Each structure stands twice: as structure tokens, then as C-alpha cells.
């Protein structure tokens, strides 16, 4: 059984390790996009979603539930670390060589040995254990001091914990603890219909909600083998690019706030407002547009919306040279961002880093180019790649992508075909499985859906971009000053409510 | 007769140009600062209280006075209570030495040049340092990690920047040939004779006042409220007020040393009125420059702030002093300029 639209093959009994090694030797851009854990009855399926330069496929491994052990991949590809830990925590697979201690996503008082994503677990019978004592700032061995950043901290707008060990001012170790906003959305999708889930998955993240909605309906449409009207695809691209614009402007401003450059913050957020107005104009809502639905989109844009959108694009385009100058040349901004958190190309590849962070380190991966979805294949646009790999490069990648997004919007508005905006889609989905990856503002977003013939999905796997990018922060923070941690971290454009789901 | 002088002195200390005037000047400058910052950032700033929101700083101050005063258990009570008040008092006292209406508050001299005594420049600089030290104590005593780190940064920063500040402050003193603020203010505006020193002094003052890009002790993204984190109610109100007076003091010092203080044309025999107007106008210019610098740069890191001091500003200050002495000895004084 193949994953719809993409190749897949079975590699049991440790073969997945060999297969991945061969792929890694053949193509340096091979990386793990996600690992899905599945409850297949007697067995646990561990599906490795792997990307290479131009292709995407799934390596399927199955292990018996009684003894769910398989070989880890972190010895040949450290980027698998977080993905494996998550499967271990939620599905109970054991990765030899990368054993989970305590919990990774689940809360500390969750009992050991209860894996919420397994079908046979009765969640009403879960007995919580007592919460262990909180970690506090303390001296580690010798000169080193452990500083706890989070779960509540002024530099973090969302709760997540990082234990930073410092020697004087230099960071020597960073231990993350995620899961503070884990809402169990993946589990929740298994008790809602596809229609309800379209709205539920938007709630994974407020900022990039159309991406989640698109990715989810994309997988369902793949299983249903629907042919989506072209006008709907164009409208989807408008929603996705408006989303990218507002998300990039948001982080470009927020980075200013983190380095004490309030003027930049105010300017970028001022210019983000017209984009929010456009989102409201095209979808009816400022934040949650709920535009995507299985079979197309729910709202058309009228002819007199187009001049309005174009005028906003033009006015923003006029302001870009000034902003580019700030992010390129402003001396104090360069002092705070240049050579901070430098991630080399090799490390970016080894850690399976994605999105603007990878592109800032010279790795040219962009799902819109590599595996075009919607109508990105016909739209001409540049893939922005910087080679510096530092915080400055990451922000400049986003700066340049703002301009590319404006170009894409221009092209789409000029070439929009007429026709229907949606087709009738059945409520129930025949048995099957599909993967859909798209380029969200923060990087590659993956949805895996497995259906069972009813109107409720069997399993929905969500892998959000920040989840895949946090390991790069753990790497780059080491050896740098603790004062650089905020500006380094904000350059990931972290979104914890995505990360935890 | 003696009673009359005493009454005048009391009026000068308490009302004009003393305590009350300085207080409102500080609030007025805060309003200018906030309004300019808002306009630079394309916001409107305060608009509700009074015309153009001019009463907003006063309203904020009164509001804080009415708030509950909380003292965390682990604070060093004595220092925690009195450091903000003491710092405020000392800053007001230092302001009293500046010739705001053509004479310093405590003097009864008749001209600007006679409105002080030789050496009062050093005294007010020392007062500013003591006030900073009291602020450091205020944060240190508040038993809060953010307050402690912020205090440590205040200490490192002002200890470092005091040295170039003193050196550059000597430039006008050398040209005037006196350490008396009055004599310096009565001369030509020294910005004309030593513009390089003016630029350096503005930068150093910016660091001394912990304004951007040197505002590391107030970095919200790292330190929440900095040394004010544990302060509430009236104590917080006085910390804010101290900060306002510090800003006015710094700007007034720039005005006095480099822009000729209250000097300017006077009419109708109303010397004190026109002197005050000139002084306040020049003050607004300096506050505006300071607000501009604050808003067009990103905040530096603490190590960059310190490197900037020891590697750039201190050598530059020494060079500036040497240049000034050379010019004064062989150019200005032989030709009778600036004396």
C-alpha cells in the first residue's frame, strides 16, 4: 500500500537504518521531515517521512507492540533526535541508542507506560502521578551555573523551558523541555469528522493557520483523489502568501523588540496592519480565515477587491528599500545580529533544519520549488538563499522573501482564471493514507492522514516547522554569550504552540 | 531686610527656580521625550490628559502615588525604602546648582558668571554619581534576580562612563579658565569652539543616563523591569521621577557647558524670565537630540557597551582634552576667544 501521491516502501527489522544510510550517502540533502507513530493493532508502525533534493517518500517500519524496539537514526543523522523522542513519548516505541528519560511532550505528572496515541489506551482511567519538584537556578559542578529560562520568562512570549548552563558568560549546554502548551490536538482529531478537523487544525497555530488548514485538506484531497478547480488553487495561494507576508513582518518587527530596537518594531507592525486588513477582506476574518475546505475554498474574492489588494502591495513595496537598508546596513543592528548563532551548512544538513533557517545557511530547500503544490509550479519567483548562516542572514532571508511574496501575489492576481471555487467532496473518506508538505512561513509543514472509510480520520500526524528547527538553536547557542540567546532564539521565529500541538 | 532675603531664598528653593519648577520641568521633558519618541515611531503618544497629553506624566505620577505599596519579605527594608527618595533628593539638589533663571537657586548673584563658586562643576558631577550609586543600591536591596543583574549593570556602566564624562566636562572649563558653572555658562556657547567635545559629551551623557543604545540596565526582553522590578506605588513613582530629573539634569548640563546656559538676548528688564525661556528652549533641543539617538539605534550588548567605553570613548575623550588644551593655550586665549 503506497502513501498516495508519494512513494513508500517497507523496511522492517532494522532495514530502515540501512536504507537511510544509503540515501544519506547518495544525496547530502537527505533529511528526516517527520516520524509518524501509528497504532496498527498488534504492531506499531513507525513511518519515516524522508525528503531528498527533489523527491519525498516514506520508509515504513513495523515493530510488535509487546517489544516495540528499533534502531535509532541519530548515530547517522542527529536531526532525527526530536522526532524519535516524540514518537517514544506518545506512541511508546523504543529507539535503541536514543532512550527517552521522563517525558518529552507530555507533562511531568503523566504516568509512565501510558501512551496516549495508542488506540487501546483508556484515557479516562489515567492516574496522574505527583509532579516532581521544579528545577531552580543552581551551581553545577565547578564554575558552571545553570540558568533556567522559562517556562515563564520575559523573553519568551509562550511557555517553554530551556535550562542553560553557563561558564561565566559563555553557554556550554542547553537542555530544552517542550510540551507546556501540549493540547493533544493529534489525539483530538481522531474523534472529530474531517469537516470539524479542518477548523481544529487551524487552532494549532494562530499565526500560520491557513498553512495548517491547507496542509490538512491537501492530504484529504490526495486520498479522495479530488481535482481541485484552478481558481480555488489561486485563491489558496493568495491566502498562503498573505499569511507568509504577515508572519514575516511580524518576526522582523519582533526581532527589533528583542534587541531593543523599538522603532523597527513599531514600523514593521504598522505595515503589517494593512496585510491583516487584506486577510480580513479576502477571508472575512483578521486571524482565523477558515478559507480552506476539502474540495476548494469557501469564499471568492470579487473583482473590486483586486485594486485594493494591489494598492496595499504597491505601498508595501515602496517601503521595502528602506527596511532592507535597516536590516542590511544599520550598524547597531549588525552588531547585535552579525555572527550571532552561526549555523554552518553541514550542521544545517545534519540537523534536518528547514525553512528560512536552512536557507540562511546555504541549504536551498523550499517546498514551493522542490515539490510544487497548489499552483506554485507555474509562478515565477526566486528562492532566497544566504550563506552567512547567522541571525542576520536569517532575518535577511525573511526580508527578501517579503518582496518575493509581493511578486507572487502580483502574478497570481494578474493570472487568476475564472471558474468554480470548490467542488463537492464526500464527507466520508475511503481507506488510504497521504502526506502533504507545504512551505509555511517558518519552514516545511507536514501533515500525514490515514483514513479508515468513515468520516473520522484514523490518525493525523502534524509536524510543525519550529519543532524541526529547535535543535539548531541548541547547537548554535553553545559557545556564545548568554546575552546573545534572545536575538539568536527569536531568529528561529519560534512558535511553541505549534511545537507542542 | 534680612528677613526679605530669607523669604526670597525660600521662594527660590521651594518654588522658582527650585523644587516645584524643576519638578514640572522634569515632567514636561518626559512629555517631550515621550511625544517625540512616539512621533519618530509613527505613533501618536499621549493625547488624553491635557492639551496634547501634556499632563500625562503628572497623571502617571499621581496614579502611582495612589497604588498599593508592596515590600517583598527578603528586601533590605531600610535601603529599599530610602534609596529612591535619597536619589531623588540628591538629583534635585544637583539641579539647584545650575543657573536656570540666570543664577543658581542657592546664589544671590546678579550676573550669570557670579552665580556659583569655583569648583561647583565637580560637585554636581559627584552628586550625579552618588545618585546613580543610590539607584544601584535600590535595585540591589530589592532581592530580585532581575533587579540584581540590572543594578550590577548600572554600576558597571556608570563607573566606566563617569571617567570620559568628567574628562569631557573639563573641556569647557579649560576654555573658560574656570571650574565654576556660572563662568562657563556666561561665556560664548562652547559648542562653537569645541564641537567635537559636544558630540562626545552627548554620547557619553546618553550612556550615563542609560538611554538607548546604552540602555542595557533597562533591557525589557532580558530583565523585565530592571531594578524597578520589585518597586510599587509611591516608591516606584519616585524612582520614575528620579529618572526624569536625571534626564533633565543631564540635558541641562549639556546646555550649561556647551550651549551657553541661560545666556541670550533679554528685553524689558525681565532678565530672569528671558534667561529661563532661553534655558528651557535649549533644554528642549538637547532632549530632542537625545530622544532621536535613543530611537534610531538597537540596544547594544553589555560587553559592547563596555568595550565602546574603554576602547573608543575614553581614548577619544583624552584626545579631545589634549586638542582643547592645545587650542586654548596657543589659539583661543592668545587671541582672546572664549575668555
Question: If you had to describe this structure to a student in words, what would you say it looks like?
Answer:
The complex is a heterodimer of chains A (501) and B (339). Chain A is an alpha+beta fold and 501 residues long. Chain A has three domains: 7-125, 2-Layer Sandwich (Beta Polymerase, domain 2), CATH 3.30.460; 144-177, no CATH class; 185-500, Orthogonal Bundle (Cytochrome-c3 Hydrogenase, chain B). In chain A, 40% of the residues lie in helices and 17% in strands. In chain A, the strands form five sheets. Chain A has a four-stranded mixed sheet, with helices on one face. In chain A, strands 7-8-9-10 form a four-stranded antiparallel sheet, with no helix packed on it. Chain A has a three-stranded antiparallel sheet with strand order 13-14-15. Chain A is globular, with a radius of gyration of 22 Å. Chain A starts with 6 loop residues before the first strand and ends with a helix. Chain B has 339 residues and is mainly alpha-helical. Chain B has one domain (77-332). In chain B, helix 2 packs parallel to helix 11. At the A-B interface, helix 6, helix 7 and helix 9 of A face helix 9 and helix 12 of B.
Roughly how much helix do the residues of chain A carry, as a percent range?
25-40%
Return the CATH architecture of the largest domain in chain A. Answer: Orthogonal Bundle
Number of helical elements of chain B: 12
Q: Please state the overall shape of chain B, judged from the principal axes of the Cα atoms.
A: globular
Give the CA-based shape of chain A: globular
Strand-residue proportion of chain A:
15-25%
Oligomer: heterodimer
Radius of gyration of chain B, taken over Cα atoms and rounded to an integer in Å: 20 Å
DSSP strand (E) fraction of chain B? Answer: under 5%
Question: Which CATH C-level class of the largest domain in chain A is it?
Answer: Mainly Alpha
> What is the spatial order of strands in the main beta sheet of chain A?
1-4-3-2
| Helix fraction bin of chain B | 55-70%
Domain module tally of chain A: 3
**Structural domains of chain B: how many:** 1
Q: Look at the structure and give the mean pLDDT of chain A.
A: 84
CATH topology of the largest domain in chain A: Cytochrome-c3 Hydrogenase, chain B
Amino acid at each position: 500500500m503506497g502513501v498516495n501521491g508519494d512513494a513508500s516502501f517497507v523496511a522492517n527489522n532494522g532495514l530502515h537504518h540501512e536504507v537511510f544510510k544509503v540515501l544519506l550517502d547518495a544525496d547530502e540533502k537527505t533529511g528526516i521531515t517527520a516520524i509518524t507513530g501509528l497504532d496498527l493493532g498488534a504492531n506499531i508502525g513507525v513511518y519515516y517521512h524522508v525528503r531528498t533534493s527533489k523527491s519525498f517518500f516514506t520508509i515504513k517500519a513495523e515493530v510488535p507492540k509487546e517489544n516495540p524496539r528499533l534502531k535509532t537514526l541519530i548515530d547517522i543523522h542527529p536531526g532525527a533526535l526530536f522526532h524519535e523522542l516524540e514518537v517514544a513519548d506518545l506512541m511508546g516505541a523504543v529507539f535503541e541508542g536514543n532512550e527517552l528519560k521522563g517525558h518529552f511532550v507530555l507533562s511531568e505528572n503523566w504516568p509512565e507506560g501510558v501512551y496516549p496515541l495508542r488506540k487501546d489506551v483508556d484515557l479516562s482511567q489515567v492516574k496522574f502521578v505527583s509532579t516532581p519538584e521544579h528545577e531552580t537556578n543552581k551551581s553545577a559542578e565547578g564554575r558552571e551555573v545553570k540558568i533556567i529560562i522559562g517556562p515563564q520568562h520575559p523573553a519568551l512570549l509562550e511557555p517553554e523551558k530551556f535550562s542553560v548552563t553557563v561558564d561565566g558568560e559563555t553557554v556550554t549546554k542547553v537542555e530544552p523541555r517542550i510540551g507546556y502548551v501540549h493540547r493533544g490536538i493529534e489525539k483530538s482529531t481522531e474523534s472529530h469528522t474531517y469537516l470539524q478537523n479542518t477548523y481544529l487544525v487551524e487552532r494549532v497555530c494562530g499565526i500560520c493557520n491557513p498553512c495548517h488548514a491547507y496542509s490538512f485538506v491537501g492530504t484529504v484531497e490526495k486520498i479522495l483523489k479530488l481535482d481541485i478547480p484552478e481558481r480555488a488553487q489561486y485563491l489558496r495561494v493568495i491566502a498562503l502568501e498573505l499569511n507568509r507576508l504577515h508572519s514575516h513582518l511580524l518576526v522582523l518587527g519582533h526581532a527589533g523588540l528583542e534587541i531593543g530596537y523599538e522603532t523597527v518594531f513599531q514600523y514593521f507592525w504598522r505595515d503589517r496592519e494593512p496585510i491583516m486588513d487584506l486577510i480580513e477582506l479576502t477571508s472575512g476574518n483578521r486571524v482565523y480565515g477558515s478559507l480552506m475546505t476539502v474540495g476548494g475554498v469557501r469564499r471568492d474574492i470579487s473583482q473590486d477587491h483586486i485594486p485594493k489588494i494591489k494598492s496595499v502591495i504597491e505601498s508595501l513595496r515602496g517601503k521595502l528599500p528602506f527596511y532592507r537598508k535597516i536590516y542590511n546596513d544599520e550598524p547597531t543592528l549588525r552588531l547585535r545580529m552579525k555572527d550571532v548563532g552561526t549555523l554552518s551548512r553541514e550542521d544545517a544538513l545534519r540537523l534536518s533544519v528547514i525553512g528560512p533557517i536552512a536557507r540562511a545557511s546555504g541549504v536551498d530547500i523550499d517546498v514551493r520549488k522542490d515539490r510544487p503544490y497548489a499552483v506554485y509550479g507555474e509562478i515565477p519567483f526566486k528562492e532566497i538563499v544566504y550563506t552567512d548562516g547567522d541571525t542576520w542572514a536569517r532575518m535577511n532571508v525573511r526580508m527578501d522573501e517579503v518582496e518575493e511574496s509581493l511578486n507572487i501575489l502580483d502574478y497570481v492576481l494578474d493570472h487568476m482564471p475564472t471558474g468554480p471555487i470548490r467542488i463537492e467532496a464526500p464527507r466520508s473518506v475511503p481507506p488510504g493514507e497521504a502526506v502533504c508538505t507545504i512551505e509555511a512561513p517558518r519552514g516545511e509543514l507536514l501533515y500525514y492522514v490515514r483514513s479508515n472509510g468513515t468520516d473520522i480520520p484514523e490518525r493525523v500526524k502534524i509536524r510543525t516547522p519550529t519543532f524541526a528547527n529547535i535543535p539548531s538553536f541548541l547547537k548554535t547557542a553553545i559557545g556564545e554569550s548568554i546575552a546573545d540567546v534572545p536575538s539568536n532564539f527569536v531568529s528561529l521565529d519560534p512558535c511553541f504552540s505549534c511545537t507542542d500541538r | 531686610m534680612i528677613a526679605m532675603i530669607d523669604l526670597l531664598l525660600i521662594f527660590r528653593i521651594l518654588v522658582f527656580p527650585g523644587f516645584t519648577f524643576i519638578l514640572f520641568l522634569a515632567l514636561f521633558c518626559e512629555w517631550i521625550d515621550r511625544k517625540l519618541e512616539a512621533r519618530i515611531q509613527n505613533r501618536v503618544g499621549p493625547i488624553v490628559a491635557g492639551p496634547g497629553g501634556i499632563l500625562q506624566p503628572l497623571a502617571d505620577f499621581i496614579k502611582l502615588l495612589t497604588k498599593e505599596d508592596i515590600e517583598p519579605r527578603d528586601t533590605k527594608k531600610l535601603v529599599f525604602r530610602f534609596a529612591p527618595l535619597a536619589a531623588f533628593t540628591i538629583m534635585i539638589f544637583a539641579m539647584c546648582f545650575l543657573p536656570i533663571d540666570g543664577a543658581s537657586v542657592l546664589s544671590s548673584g546678579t550676573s550669570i558668571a557670579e552665580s556659583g563658586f569655583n569648583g561647583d562643576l565637580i560637585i554636581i558631577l559627584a552628586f550625579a554619581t552618588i545618585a546613580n550609586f543610590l539607584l544601584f543600591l535600590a535595585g540591589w536591596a530589592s532581592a530580585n534576580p532581575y533587579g540584581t543583574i540590572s543594578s550590577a549593570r548600572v554600576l558597571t556602566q556608570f563607573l566606566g562612563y563617569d571617567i570620559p564624562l568628567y574628562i569631557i566636562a573639563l573641556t569647557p572649563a579649560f576654555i573658560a579658565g574656570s571650574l565654576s558653572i556660572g563662568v562657563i555658562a556666561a561665556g560664548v556657547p562652547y559648542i562653537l569652539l569645541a564641537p567635537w567635545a559636544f558630540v562626545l559629551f552627548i554620547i557619553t551623557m546618553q550612556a550615563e543616563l542609560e538611554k538607548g543604545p546604552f540602555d542595557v540596565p533597562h533591557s525589557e526582553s532580558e530583565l523585565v523591569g530592571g531594578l524597578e522590578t520589585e518597586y510599587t506605588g509611591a516608591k516606584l513613582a519616585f524612582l520614575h521621577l528620579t529618572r526624569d530629573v536625571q534626564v533633565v539634569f543631564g540635558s541641562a548640563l549639556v546646555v550649561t557647558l556647551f550651549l551657553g546656559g541661560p545666556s541670550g538676548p533679554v528685553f524689558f528688564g525681565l532678565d530672569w524670565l528671558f534667561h529661563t525661556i532661553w534655558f528651557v528652549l535649549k533644554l528642549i533641543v538637547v532632549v530632542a537630540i537625545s530622544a532621536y539617538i535613543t530611537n534610531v539605534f538597537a540596544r547594544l550588548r553589555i560587553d559592547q557597551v563596555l568595550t565602546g567605553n574603554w576602547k573608543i570613548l575614553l581614548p577619544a575623550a583624552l584626545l579631545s582634552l589634549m586638542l582643547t588644551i592645545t587650542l586654548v593655550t596657543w589659539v583661543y586665549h592668545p587671541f582672546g576667544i572664549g575668555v
